[in-house]
Amino acid sequence: MSPSAPPSAIRLPVGLPKASLPTSSSPPSARFPHLAMSASSSRRSPPLAASGANASLLAADPGHRDAVLLAARGAMANCLGETSLHLAVPGLRLAAKGKVRDVYESGEHLVLVTTDRQSAFDRVLASIPFKGQVLNETSLWWFDRTRHITPNAVVSSPDKNVTIAKRCSVFPVEFVVRGYVTGSTDTSLWTVYNKGVRNYCGNVLPDGMVKNQKLSENILTPTTKAADHDVPVTPEEIINSGLMSKEDFDEARSKALSLFAYGQEVALENGLILVDTKYEFGKTADGTIMLIDENPRCLLFDKQVHTPDSSRYWIADSYKERFNSSLEPENVDKEFLRLWFKNNCNPYEDAVLPEAPEELVCELAWRYIFLFETITNTKFEIPKTQEPIHERMSRNVALALQNL
């Protein structure tokens, strides 16, 4: 397979039809009141072209996709780009602002706000309608479903864009788990492999692999942070430098690999491949290691469990055929936007980046929603009003903190 194989074709509508915004009549969840958990949802469809005889999972319901794209265009002016909850909610302190997440402190709790900012290449690229809500709800769904593997820090979710979590001591290591040789960033497995690296983060890789090939087994490629970029490290370096004890690292590594294997299982049951992802862990005062949602000291990590910001997803049915044809897999993540920026500028070095096309911004909004609905078998609830998101959040967070 050529390393410069073209991305999947993107079909973008010309003149979107008028459509009613999708709604949900499902009863609210008792644990997370804003999550509408309907019994099931039909398969959704982003615009990637299916190849061959198999009908793509991405092409099952074009009417729903058109309605979401229309809603996304209408919401472009109401994206949550910046937050200042500490100015609106008494007793709240701004801890850190990241590429996507803003973290506030309130006593023994953290208030984690997921904005609509879109990041890649260690910088913000655009604002994506509904993104913060989709990521927050996707992450909460996975946190709830993975409690059999590891405890987590989630306390509640008082708003569509907000999670309240327990404060804990955070390990300064990002646990990146990979199942395939792929990627386009400087630290992606394909990039380093294509440069000749055969021992990456302590994993010995065989010669002769090609882009998007499945590894013989899932591997852990941990990273830490230096200034503003990821730094791949080996387990030995983590332990010898004192970033983690061997016992803590071994337990977190085991949890990360188990979480990823479970995520792959759930994804495949819904027609998707979980390609790679990243996790972060913390430790409570009693010594319990738990999965966390964000490190307020290092917000360049885009956490949130198994979301498109922390994970790469492909369509399962078309993967083999496209791989054998040296084509990029049908992806349900932000890779297509990464590729657009790489093809139109130098996203690592250019001081000013080109503005992302509106069609691609709305397309990414749809893919986030598609993934949420496909994985969770629930209907995403698009906001029914144009109430400013920040005003709604401020009201909901203030009430939640009063009741803690």
UniProtKB/TrEMBL annotation:
Entry annotated with the keyword Protease: no
Membrane-crossing residue ranges in chain numbering: none
BP terms from Gene Ontology: 'de novo' IMP biosynthetic process
Organism: Oryza punctata (Red rice)
Superkingdom classification of source: Eukaryota
Protein name per the record: Phosphoribosylaminoimidazole-succinocarboxamide synthase, chloroplastic
UniProt record similarity statement: Belongs to the SAICAR synthetase family.
Annotated metabolic or biological route of this protein: Purine metabolism; IMP biosynthesis via de novo pathway; 5-amino-1-(5-phospho-D-ribosyl)imidazole-4-carboxamide from 5-amino-1-(5-phospho-D-ribosyl)imidazole-4-carboxylate: step 1/2
